[in-house]
């Protein structure tokens, strides 16, 4: 399932990023208090990093590493057992079409491939919820189309929460959209690629 949020703030980029991080921290805080979060079984703070992961914008990566080294490092950091790490790296590399880039130095990658690597490291430990902050930001038109298809393909295996202010991309990518204003949920609805009234609906709430 792919869900998108958009912010109706004057400084929307920073408001969105803050809202996404606040959402993730709110889940962690609720888990620490013993709440059951969106899952049938209770979620504890210790298991939170295995369930939820954010892929922020801009994509943070270690520039001195090669792609395969970075994914291996992140797998171990996310507590993937050493015996399972090669298979985990191979799995996300195949999912993100990175198998032929594992030996490439990170600084040589295009922005589109850097976005893919960032998502791959977020998925290397098989979380249940993936949070994406502006996944198409800075990409050229072809890369945007590829990223849109990628997110849709991931939504069949993970719950994807995407933060974006680009309403046409929201309509083409997500199944549901929610509008946040001042930290409050102002509206939520189903959305699809044929929807043409998303902008009017957004303005009516903002």
What are the salient characteristics of this protein?
single chain; alpha/beta; Rossmann fold; 6-stranded mixed sheet; 8 helices; 6 strands; 43% helix; 16% strand; elongated
Entry summary:
With 206 residues, the chain is of the alpha/beta class. The protein has helices at residues 12-32, 48-51, 67-77, 85-95, 111-123, 141-154, 167-173, 198-205; strands at 2-7, 52-55, 129-133, 159-163, 176-181, 184-190.
First-last Cα distance: 25 Å
Oligomer: single chain
Q: Helix segment count? A: 8
Count of structural domains: 1
Average of the residue pLDDT scores = 77
What's the CATH superfamily, by name?
A: P-loop containing nucleotide triphosphate hydrolases
Number of strands: 6
Named at the architecture level, the CATH assignment is 3-Layer(aba) Sandwich
Largest sheet composition: 6 strands, mixed
Beta fraction = 15-25%
Write the CATH fold name: Rossmann fold
| Tertiary shape | elongated
> Quick one: CATH class?
Alpha Beta
Query: What is the rounded Rg?
Result: 17 Å
> What fraction, in percent, of the residue positions are helical?
40-55%
Order of helices and strands: EHHEHHHEHEHEEH
**Helix/strand structural class:** alpha/beta
Q: Segments where pLDDT lies below 50 for 5+ residues? A: 7-16, 27-52
| Spatial strand sequence of the major β-sheet | 2-3-4-1-5-6
